[in-house]
Every structure is written in structure tokens, then in C-alpha cells.
Design goal:
Two copies of one chain form a homodimer.
Chain A (H helix, E strand, L loop, with lengths): L1 E7 L2 E7 L4 E4 H9 L9 H6 L1 H17 L7 E2 L4 E2 L9 E4 L10 E3 L6 E4 L4 E2 L5 E3 L10 E7 L8 H4 L3 E9 L3 H6 L1 E9 L7 E9 L2 H5 L4 E3 L3 E3 L10 E6 L2 E7 L7 H9 L9 E6 L22 E5 L3 E5 L1 E3 L11
Parallel strand pairs in A: 6-19, 9-15, 10-22
Antiparallel strand pairs in A: 1-2, 1-5, 1-16, 2-3, 3-4, 6-8, 11-12, 11-19, 12-15, 12-16, 13-14, 17-18, 17-20, 20-21
Helix pairs in contact in A: 1-3
Chain lengths: ~325, ~325
């Protein structure tokens, strides 16, 4: 199934696609199929918390609606407005430098996945505006495969990890590399002495902090669809394309991720419990396009949108880029 | 008011302190004061979303309960179990290196606050176990003042920021500096050329990723109380103490933060919209104690808990530290 969180005529609902041009409100379908006492999820998080039971029930309601085409109102996709499919995920983990195209640029790097967090407050949906301010500095798109967790997972081996996935979506992990360059520290870290914990030792360390450059408002475009896992044969072999202002800036595939989908969520689950609705964004697919453009050329302070990301089997998201005209030129502390 | 999210006899509720040894369930108080059709918040997030109206109403219910001591059941604090006061904040922003004691260790650093995110999934409450595994490497406590946002804020000047605060709490921002040292990258970053966006330039950059070392399960202790803003005269002048295994390892004050409470949330609001229930943890208060112990000596792989944090006016949290005995010695990718 292709699920979405939409607004239609002012009402928010979960929708499911019935063909390329129409969705139905799952509330309508479930009432038609099961009667008015059907337990209808209020939002996508709620649906995901119902687990496989909720998905199976929804699938039956969809079958009913397809078999009875006049029983449930068909909503034209052209008339809906889109939210992120999961509007308030408990967490969004973003995997860093997971594309094999970045390997040659690594001078030193860990031998395991590294990840950061994006806040739910940065999420927008398909067709919503990405909003940039001058004081953000350079900002560029990062097209990524997003995993949506379906079942609470902790310490799950990679061999068993796939069954914890509800489905997949498209993430544009908007990145302010101007702010990235501003939030760097070089300092003397203090560690306990390994032999004598009463003593400490100083270690020169470079640290950087990702909350601004990865989490600023509108820096996460998710959707349009949450495509359930059964529809994607191999998430580790999907083509990815990103366009800015109509020009292709990345032509890539999830097959070039260093770590596979199952490895990523297995690894994270050995530190963080992953809950239904949590998102793991697998890292940027940024191989340069045939015309030699790259996402790094697509600084939204210089080039105009819209920006689109397409992943094979998951659909296309497209968003305008708005450069806000603000009287203040810089953030302030007073 | 001192608010808490607790369980008592198997039922979760929001509680409010009526004296040093007792709380009441706000549901009981509101029904006693306003009748059974009172709109009772289901959890702390819900209460905070009601804004000042909700707080004022709760305050009236508390006054009623204090004036009518037999009208509402008094629950002994000794009999409750504690959750984080806000169990699922939309986001938790942690401010980096905000203590003036760290300034002399900075070789280079930004001239503004830098911050990272912790996931809601890492939160535990007062008296819950901090759980450490051998493959986490060294892990230490970081005692911090936590701000709880009460009103949605975006682009709020520091001069007006305080009124957006619902209250304060105590955060132990548990930090795995072993993992911190493992999640470092040195690499050639690519930026768009400022003069010719068709060109790019390479910049050597050190990046680090905080999700593991700041966000692993049980790495955030919040509480016991959410103390409403009206009870704290000056959040920028509160003493902070941290003990590990009964020994003082930090004696500090929020007056030594580089950036004040109002400056921090104003700054963040110029990038991230802050929502009711969001947490901003102000940075570690880690000045060494008179006995020359520091939090950096308190590696939980070497020293035993419990760990406690006390902030003037906000109370004391104390948590056991459990080193898990696991058959696997290291995380795995297969």
C-alpha cells in the first residue's frame, strides 16, 4: 500500500492510494468495510503502533473499497495537500557519509555507521516550501532513502531486522553546510585515566554539532508516500534521482550505500531502541549526474528551486524553495 | 508548582506536590474542584499544550486541594515510581560546552551557542536505572539545568524569551565519551564556489556525530520535578551539585554558563521552532568539587553509582547505575 498523511477540504487524515490519481480516506474505507465501530487510527503513528494487525485490517478495508468502487469517496490526488507521512516521529536518525562516493574523501572515519538526529519539528511534506534565510549560509539538498520502523526493536540482528520495518519513504535531508562550518570545536577533551580513575588525561579533539545544520525548520522533506515493505522487493537496489530547478544534480542508487538497510537499523538498535514511526534516513545518494552537476552546486542561496527527489517505487517529492526576505541579516543574541 | 509524571499503584498520572512528602493526582484534584466534566490533561505534554490556561486551572485545583485536605487522596512520595516529567518531548536540545570552566580548553570555537539533539527514547526518570554496556566505552554524568518550553516560540528576542518557559527541571545528560571518540570523521567536504556555483571547492573538515554518545537508551535522566517558572526567581543563579557513589564530583552554579537561559532559547528559536514540552538542556555544570574530583573521573565502567544531581529549587534526582552483563562484548554488523 501507498499511505500518506494529507489534508483534504481542511480535514487531516491518513489516505491510501487506489490508483495513480486517487486516494481514499482510510476512515471512510474502514467504516464502509467494518462498520462505524471499527477502531480507526487517528494518525500514522497510531496506525503504526497497531502493528501488523492495523496494517492487515487496513489492507482488507482497501480491498473492500477496490471491490466496491462507489462505497468510498475517491479523492483526486491533485486536490490534496501533503504532510510528512509520519508527522511527529519519536526520532529521526540520519546516517552520515554512507555513500561509497564519499569514501575517497575520508581521511579518517569510523568502521561502523555514524548517525545524527533531526527533530520532528523540521519535517515538511511534499509540495510544502523549504524556507531559507540569509543567515543560514549555504544550504543544499540530500536525497535519501528513509526507513519507517513498524515494530519496537532493540538488539535485533541484521538477519532479522527487515521484519521490523513498516515501509519506506523519500527523505530530502536538507543540509546547511554553511552552519556546519560554524559549529565546529577544537578543544582539549578530558578523559578518565584508564589505569587510575582518580586521574584524568587531556586529548585534543575536534567536535561538531549537527542540530542547526540538520534540524532547522523545513530541513526535512518526507514523502509523499509511506510505501509498505511488501511493495519493495529490494530496498538496497533502488535508483535515486534529485533535480534542482529542473536540472538533474544526482543520479545514484541505494546499492551504493556502504551499509545496507538491515545493517543500519540493526546497528542503531544496539544503542537506541527504535519505536514504531521512528525514521532512519540512510544517507545521501549524491553521485554526480551525467551533466556533472552535483548536489553541492545546488546552494539554495544561489540557485532557484523547485527541488525534487525520486526513488524507484517510492514516488517523487517536489518542493519550492523560498528565500525569506527578512529585515534582520543575522541571528542575534540580545 | 512542582509537577511530576509518576506511576502509583500501576496507574500513570500527572502529580503535583502538596508538601515535602506527598503529591496528589491532578485528575483527583480537578474533579474535586471542578466536577467530573473538567478537561483533565492526559499527560504532561497535553497539560503544556493547554498553555497558561491549563496551568492556572491546575493551580486553582491545587488551592482547592490544600484548602480541603480530605477531598483529595494524598499519595506518599515514597510510594510512587517516577518517569521523566515530560515523557515524550518533541525534541531535546542540548547545549555544548556552555560552562565557562570549559573555555580555557577551547582551541577554536564558535561565537554563538552550539547544540545537539537527544532523542525522547533515551529519557528515564528519577530512580530508574542508567544501564551501561561494555561496548559503550567510557560513560560519565553531566549535571544540567533543563528548560521546559511552555509556548510555541519562533524568532523570539532574548528580552521576551522568559515568558515562553513553562518551568525547569534537572537533567543528567549522560555522555558516552568513549563512543564520542569513535564517531569522528576527518574528510574533504565539498562546497559550492561562492563566485561560480557551477564549480565546487574542497575544504578539509572534522565532523563528529552525537546520536550514539548523547542519545543511547537511558542517557537522559530528567526530573524528578517540573518546577513551574514562577517558583524560580533567577534560573541563571542556581547552585548545581553532582555526586557519584556518594562523593561530590561537581560543585557549580548556573551563573557560570556562558549563555543565559533567555539567550539560549532565543538563539535556538531563530532556527528551530520550539514547541510546548520541548526541552533545552543548558550544558554541563562541571566545576570540580573541593575534593578535586570531577565528572570526568566518574566513568561508569570503573566507578559505581548511584549518581545524583541536585539543583537549587528543583530538587534531587538519584539513579542507580547498572553495568549489563551481556554475552556479546561488542556491537555487531552481521
Amino acid at each position: 500500500m501507498k499511505l500518506a498523511s494529507i489534508s483534504y477540504k481542511g480535514t487531516d487524515c491518513i489516505a491510501v492510494a487506489i490508483d495513480d490519481e486517487h486516494v481514499i480516506n482510510i476512515k471512510d474505507a474502514m467504516i464502509a468495510a467494518f462498520g462505524s465501530d471499527a477502531e480507526i487510527p487517528v494518525d500514522m503513528n497510531h496506525l503504526l503502533q497497531q502493528g501488523q494487525t492495523g496494517i492487515t485490517k487496513l489492507s482488507s478495508a482497501l480491498d473492500f473499497a477496490l471491490a466496491n468502487p462507489t462505497a468510498v469517496m475517491h479523492i483526486p490526488i491533485a486536490d490534496v495537500s501533503w504532510h510528512a507521512p509520519v508527522r511527529k516521529p519519536g526520532k529521526i536518525c540520519g546516517v552520515a557519509m554512507n555513500n561509497s562516493a564519499s569514501n575517497s574523501r575520508k581521511i579518517s572515519a569510523p568502521d561502523h555507521p555514524a548517525f545524527f538526529l533531526k527533530p520532528a519539528s523540521c519535517l515538511i511534506g511534499h509540495e510544502e516550501a523549504i524556507t531559507i534565510r540569509s543567515y543560514y549560509g549555504s544550504v543544499h539538498p540530500e536525497p535519501e532513502l528513509a526507513i519507517v520502523i513498524g515494530t519496537t526493536m532493540r538488539d535485533v540482528d541484521a538477519a532479522n531486522a527487515m521484519e521490523y520495518i513498516a515501509g519506506y519513504s523519500v527523505m530530502n535531508d536538507i543540509t546547511g553546510n554553511g552552519m556546519r562550518a560554524e559549529d565546529l570545536f577544537q578543544y582539549w577533551a578530558i578523559y578518565a585515566d584508564e589505569d587510575d580513575p582518580d586521574k584524568t588525561r587531556r586529548v585534543e579533539q575536534h567536535l561538531s554539532y549537527a542540530a542547526r545544520y540538520k534540524g532547522t525548520d523545513t530541513f526535512g522533506v518526507l514523502g509523499p508516500w509511506l510505501v509498505t515493505r511488501d511493495e519493495i522487493n529490494d530496498p538496497d537496489d533502488l535508483s535515486v534521482e534529485c533535480k534542482v530547478g529542473g536540472e538533474v544534480v544526482a543520479e545514484d542508487s541505494t546499492r551504493y550505500y556502504n551499509y545496507k538497510v538491515a545493517e543500519l537499523i540493526s546497528f542503531i538498535s544496539q544503542f537506541h531502541t527504535l519505536h514504531p514511526g521512528d525514521i532512519v534516513s540512510c544517507g545521501t545518494a549524491f553521485k554526480a549526474s551525467a551533466n556533472r552537476k552535483s548536489i553541492h552546486n545546488a546552494n539554495f542561496q544561489q540557485v532557484s528551486g523547485p527541488v525534487s527527489v525520486t526513488i524507484e517505487g517510492l514516488g517523487t517529492q517536489e518542493n519550492p524553495v523560498v528565500v525569506e526576505n527578512r529585515t534582520i541579516g543575522k541571528w542575534r543574541l540580545s
